[in-house]
Structure formats: structure tokens, C-alpha cells
């Protein structure tokens, strides 16, 4: 008889540990894991700029949560926030030069961590693992709709 395991619980435990380790790593650069993701998101946007509303949608967080993350990044001089010239109701966020430097360093650390995890598996195992994760994510996204 097959052993029944709680996939969701194990994924949650893995996520908790990954977030804890990532926060510890990012703390060395003076940012949180959430702030790191925000910097990376801006880095990938055209002209490294985005509206606060687009960021809220991308990260699936409330306006207050995103505004808090941006405010703390502004205080650290990693982003600048300003009102859109086209629509005064829209708040825009742009990556600063200092923010880009931190983004590059934090991305390098995260890539190193990713490579360490991937080294636990063969190339074939990683290909299968990626397929399984994508399938699970797709199914959960379908159930959400």
C-alpha cells in the first residue's frame, strides 16, 4: 500500500525554509526577500519603471502591502516613486542606480542558491521536477479561476 503524504504541507515547509534562508541572505545587503523581488521586477521592466498598480497585480498583494514595500525601498534610496505625468492618480516606481546595484548582487546570490539546490538532482531529474512543478502550478491556477 502506497504511503500517503501531504504534498501541500511539504511544499509549505519547503517554502517557509526557502523564504527564511532567502531573507537571511538578502539581509546581508539590507533588503528583504520581498524587496529583492520588487527590485528584480523593476529591473525587467521597460526603462526599469512600473506603476504601483501593475506591481500589485504582478505580486498578488494589496495596495497597502505594495505601497509599504515601495516606501521602504524609497527610504533606502533603491527606488524613486512619483506621480505619473499622464494621470495624477497613478503612482510610478523606478529603479535607482543604487537599486540596480543591489538588484545585481542579490540576483547573483539567489542564482548561487538556485544552483546549489539544482545540484542535488541529475539533469534528467531536474527536467522532470520542473515539469511536475509546472503541472501543479497550472492546475492550482485553473482551480483559482
Largest sheet: 3 strands, antiparallel
In what range is the share of β-strand residues? 5-15%
Q: Order of helices and strands, N to C? A: HHEHHEEHH
Q: pLDDT average, as an integer?
A: 91
Name the poorly predicted regions. Answer: none
Helix content bin: 55-70%
Give the class from helix and strand content and strand pairing: mainly alpha
- How big is the Rg? 18 Å
Work out the helix count.
6
Distance between the termini: 35 Å
Q: Strand order within the widest sheet?
A: 1-3-2
Shape: globular
Oligomer: single chain
β-strand number: 3
Please, could you describe this protein's structure?
The protein is mainly alpha-helical. Helices cover 67% and strands 9% of the residues. It has helices at residues 7-27, 33-43, 52-59, 63-75, 97-118, 123-144; strands spanning 49-51, 79-83, 91-95. It has a three-stranded antiparallel beta sheet. Strand 2 and strand 3 form a beta hairpin. Helix 2 packs across helix 5 and helix 3 (52-59) packs across helix 4 (63-75). It is globular. The model has no long low-confidence stretch (mean pLDDT 91).
Structure, briefly:
Helices cover 67% and strands 9% of the residues. With 145 residues, it is mainly alpha-helical. The longest helix has 22 residues, at 97-118.
What structural keywords apply?
145 residues, mainly alpha, three-stranded antiparallel sheet, 6 helices
Which helices and strands, and how do they pair?
Layout: H1 7-27, H2 33-43, E1 49-51, H3 52-59, H4 63-75, E2 79-83, E3 91-95, H5 97-118, H6 123-144
Antiparallel strand pairs: 1-3, 2-3
Helix pairs in contact: 2-5, 3-4
